[in-house]
Design brief:
Largest sheet: 2 strands, antiparallel
Helix content: 25-40%
Number of helices: 4
Distance between the termini: 33 Å
Order of helices and strands: HEEHHH
Structural class: alpha+beta
Shape: elongated
């Protein structure tokens, strides 16, 4: 599927530490002046703020939609070992050695 390919590519490029695929999301939205609905797969992508711009560019380039949804929610707290794992997983190869 498109969602699975996108998720794998983001992790492969070290732009995401983990991507959760949540299938069966029913979306209702206005597009090009018309009310529309779509069954979609929601991707929850874990990255760092330092990698967000690159991740956004990759999603826009790889996604088949004209206007893919990319929004960032700030992480204000979390399990520190997990947050360190996310940071190390998305660090450029030269920085992670």
């Amino acid at each position: 599927t498109v969602a699975r390919r996108l998720a794998r590519e983001l992790v492969r490029r070290r732009l995401a530490a983990c991507v959760n695929l949540l299938p069966g999301v029913d979306s209702v939205f206005r597009w090009q002046g018309k009310l529309d609905t779509s069954r979609e797969v929601l991707l929850v992508i874990k990255t760092t703020s330092a990698r967000l711009a690159r991740l956004t560019r990759a999603v826009v380039a790889l996604h088949p939609y004209d206007l893919p949804e990319v929004i960032a929610l700030p992480v204000t707290r979390g399990h520190q070992p997990y947050l360190r794992w996310v940071a190390s997983s998305v660090a450029p190869r030269s920085a992670s050695r």
